[in-house]
Hints:
By secondary structure, this protein is of the alpha+beta class. It contains 4 helices and 21 strands. It has a 9-stranded mixed sheet with strand order 1-4-17-6-15-18-19-21-20. Strand 9 and strand 10 (about 155) form a beta hairpin. The longest helix is centred in the last third of the chain and has 20 residues, at about 265-285. It starts with 9 loop residues before the first strand and ends with a helix.
Amino acid sequence: xxxxxxxxxxxxxxxxxxxxxxxxxxxxxxxxxxxxxxxxxxxxxxxxxxxxxxxxxxxxxxxxxxxxxxxxxxxxxxxxxxxxxxxxxxxxxxxxxxxxxxxxxxxxxxxxxxxxxxxxxxxxxxxxxxxxxxxxxxxxxxxxxxxxxxxxxxxxxxxxxxxxxxxxxxxxxxxxxxxxxxxxxxxxxxxxxxxxxxxxxxxxxxxxxxxxxxxxxxxxxxxxxxxxxxxxxxxxxxxxxxxxxxxxxxxxxxxxxxxxxxxxxxxxxxxxxxxxxxxxxxxxxxxxxxxxxxxxxxxxxxxxxxxxxxxxxxxxxxxxxxxxxxxxxxxxxxxxxxxxxxxxxxx
Length: 347
């Protein structure tokens, strides 16, 4: 781990805002890195929205303007120097900000939690395909909703996050950027916001870290399958916890420790997240696994991340105040928070 993060190197990685979708990255694994970075690097980059900017008005339909092979492009992958299987990548989000003054959400045929899908087969026809354009008011930190069929409007809090954050999977696998799993990927949890550190187990040399799928905001569960999608300008710090394995992605904020699980059915995703939290708490507190199980049972929150992706994602979160003396991941979050504050003070 970079114990000292003094004057960290800042890497700016630009992306083409008007790219050829066929030339973008849509997978974790099997892709050559776009850049090599050393642990402790501050990475300033951008991401495209999940439609690569192809859906721009209420008249646009995803099925008409997008190629289904080219959905959810990623920025990266980045080769992290010194990262080896058995290590943990620590990714701290310094800032996540919408690049444009608008975002988009849609209904996509046979997609979403309240529609039939390829794996939930029903006889009903697809829901009507619709597109909503949201105004993003960065000054007032609001996302402005406007109904299509009436004059109803609502001002919603701006809460930027990344739906997709991950590394290359183990065993040489290549996984779609539409899927979540133990490598991270399309977890779609609103917890992945600025000020949070994401911990990802390294599966291949260099980790091959990527991110994308910016959301101006999203409800827990992402019920219709599409959040307020937007292009993002993101600053993050990439660091390394050597010799510490992380079986499933974990997150740490100033107030909570969080674990994730991704699979179907949803209750098994819940179980993965809970087992990971029980084992993490046992490790941090020195308790037995059964004592930790009891403590987690009485203190955890269980937000639903998504129930729409190829498999679903659940989160378990426990207040750090329950065990104030515990130090997770060798204090990575605290160190990275300090480095982020120092960087922001220079901007």
